[in-house]
Amino acid sequence: xxxxxxxxxxxxxxxxxxxxxxxxxxxxxxxxxxxxxxxxxxxxxxxxxxxxxxxxxxxxxxxxxxxxxxxxxxxxxxxxxxxxxxxxxxxxxxxxxxxxxxxxxxxxxxxxxxxxx
Length: 117
Hints:
This protein is mostly beta strands. 0% of the residues lie in helices and 50% in strands. It has strands spanning 3-7, 10-12, 18-25, 34-39, 45-51, 58-60, 68-73, 78-83, 92-98, 106-107, 111-115. The chain starts with a strand and ends with a strand.
C-alpha cells in the first residue's frame, strides 16, 4: 500500500533552516506529482508546494515563495523540502502528499516544525 514517511522536523530559531525528507513506497513514485502541505494549530490544511513527476516543474504558495525549495530524487523515491529564513508563522505539522495542488490522494503522518526563540 501507499506509504509516505516524513522526517527532518524540529525546533529552529527564526531565520534558521531545516530540510524535510519524505520516503515514498507502495507506488510508482516517478509517475506522480508530489506535494508538501502543512497544518498549523487551530487552522486548516495549507498547501505549500508541489513538484511534477520528473522534477522539472515546481509551484509554491505565496507565503513560502523565495524561501522554500521542493525537490525530488526519483531513483531513491525521495521528496525534499528545503526551508530557509523560517518564520514563527511557519510553525506547523508538515505532510508529504501524493498528488499536486487540489489533487492530493494520500499523505503521511507528518513531521513537526516549530520556529521559536
